[in-house]
Amino acid sequence: MSDRERILGRVRRALADVTPDERPYEQAVSRDYLREHGERTPERTAELLAENLADYRAVVHRCTEAGLPALIGRLLADRKAASVLVPAGLDEGWLAATDVTRVPDRPESTPFDLDRADSVLTACAVAVAETGTIVLDGGPGQGRRRISLVPDHHICVVRVPGQVVSSVPQALERLDPVRPLTWISGPSATSDIELDRVEGVHGPRTLEVILLG
């Protein structure tokens, strides 16, 4: 018996007691949980997002559309970045105030190529205030998952209030489950048994979030 036949046999045995009239998963699972914890104005929701991002040690900035290019230019200059990864579909105006070398997100780029980029600049799909989480789905201006994991410095732009929701259930309603979803809660970090925190383990050591509104 092959491994494939063995696995399929286990699946068939597991499904043996499923009746033909059993309700689909979407109907069988109760969805009566809280959609958000308390009621907040859009302004307070954005404040909660900023607070929770900061709790995760992300660096939070606020600016208007007009001030965005100058802010991005300053953040790259502060890092002494000589290059920035740019995903397809990113607004070119965001980098208008800097002459840092643009590195396009190419399918043939190796992890070593991506690691040579000093920073990466992306948009996002949605941000969750209650958990301080930013979600990328590979859409325009977001690129493939690996560009937000390999470079050591990630600048992410979140439009406020349009891309900010209170809770994870509200975020899931906006997301397509077949897309490559990357959920980011602060910079990459881990701790050993003595709770010594180490950052930059499996993603960027520094996450800077710009709340644009």
TrEMBL record:
Domain LUD: 112-212
Matching Pfam families: LUD_dom (PF02589)
Listed name of the protein: LUD domain-containing protein
